[in-house]
Amino acid sequence: MSRKWERMVSKNAKKINKDRSKRGIAPISTDPDRAEVFKGRSIMLALFFVLISVFLLLTLTKTSGDTMYWYTTLAYMVVGLFVYFIRRPYLKVSKTSLSKRGFARELVLNADNINEIVYAPGQVVIHLKGKSPRWVYNRTLNRFDVVAMAGKLKKFAEQNQVAFVDKTV
């Protein structure tokens, strides 16, 4: 299909789906080129902040316990809960690129910068070209759905001529 035709189909499908959702009916189709997002949980960082908060609560008896101490303890607890429930790590797989959350921004990686994608039991590793660090997504630490992620990444690798290694076989 030409790009103009794809845009027209997408626009009409969006309009019909919006009308159907107003009437309470399921949408007719979804955009196949839409990026799929796999979300996990940042357990280690959240646990670190909560443990600092608990440590501050346990050492409260040795200090005078002024109000700033309570604010600090509460702030560590809130940051830990924020990291666990709100600021979740993710991998967004689109048609020609991958993206993830960095420290302060979204990091986007085009298909030509990927050396290979390795799927092992319980984890997915994306090796980058050059001296860039690899991207690791696993089931135990970050609670990602690795099986679904590997299926989508395999499709991505086939479309963009990237090596995909399956170590589960």
Automatic annotation (TrEMBL):
<feature type="transmembrane region" description="Helical">
    <location>
        <begin position="43"/>
        <end position="62"/>
    </location>
</feature>
<keyword id="KW-0812">Transmembrane</keyword>
<protein>
    <recommendedName>
        <fullName>Methyltransferase</fullName>
    </recommendedName>
</protein>
<keyword id="KW-1133">Transmembrane helix</keyword>
<keyword id="KW-0472">Membrane</keyword>
<feature type="transmembrane region" description="Helical">
    <location>
        <begin position="68"/>
        <end position="86"/>
    </location>
</feature>
